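User: Teach me something about this protein's shape.
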Amino acid sequence: MRANTVIMIVLAGVFGVLAVVLANIWLANQRSVMARTDDVQRDTVVVAAVALKFGDTLSADKLREVAWPSGAVPSGAFKTSKELLTGDSKQALQAIGVNEPVLATKITGPGQRATLSAVLGEGMKAVSIRVNDVLGVAGFVFPGDRVDVLLTRTVRSQDGADQSFVDVLLQSMKVLAVDQVADESKDSPTVVKSVTLEATTKDAQKLTLAAGAGQLSLALRQAAASKGETTERVTLSDLTGEMPADVAKRQAELDKQAATEALAAAERQRAEDERKRADDKIAGLAKAVDRVGSKLDELGKVKPAPAVVSAPQPVVKEVVKYVQPEPPARATIGVFRGVKLETYDVPRQQ
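Assistant: First, the predicted structure itself:
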């Protein structure tokens, strides 16, 4: 037999003996603990014998009493079913599991009914907001969940451009009811139209004002995440990396391009109309030429009338004779007498 095999067998035996010893020690400790537990003073606590949901009326057949260590009785627990059922009938304000202690905070008090007013905290209000299947987290928000309320708005800036942005309005709001269902044990998603939240008076005012200022939506929070967090406004520039001025510039370019295309289309239409009118004129001229040609053909078929030769006319010659004009019979003579000119009309000598 090889040495390695022998060593493995020895180690297996040692570990087996060690496991048996440790098991005996653990069992001895458990027996001693159980022996000490028998000496602990015990009391009774009322627990649910069946699973209870919101609005269920409590009765003796739905409750039972179990032993409970006296020093560990939960606050608000009942010792006996008779004590719990004393007075007016009581109803469950939230889901209570089997063998879960029935506490005073989980059931209605004297004269109360299983309504939302019974589950509101001290100084808190219930306010409802309208949602749809998407804004209501696709129906996966249930009573008892915590949500953040988001507000989406669109405002017009000084330059006339519309700006859209989203703010976190409220954080970690407790959902009291979905539509008209306040049962926390409900676990099937449904399309809802409204969600009722637990809020302070100021938060209720914010929700009421925001419902008319923009669009409200919900963001489901982790069950254990009850603390608020630092948030910031999200705008269109965070989505596309563009500022409103860039969006306006691009829109102006698109408008300019559309105007250029419209002008080009108008020019094309005008050219088409002119071409059509020219074609109509050419067609009219062609018809006129055809009519003239037809007329000429008709005239060409008519035989010409015989020409009439007139008698020759005598030729008259014109003679031009130059006649010398006769000289005038009198003449005018001027004589200076000093600086004075005197004229005389005297007969002309031949």
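Now, about its shape. The longest strand covers residues 162-178. The beta strands are 42-48, 63-69, 125-130, 146-156, 162-178, 194-199, 215-220, 234-235, 330-337, 340-347. If you'd like, I can walk through any region in more detail.
User: That's plenty for now, thanks!
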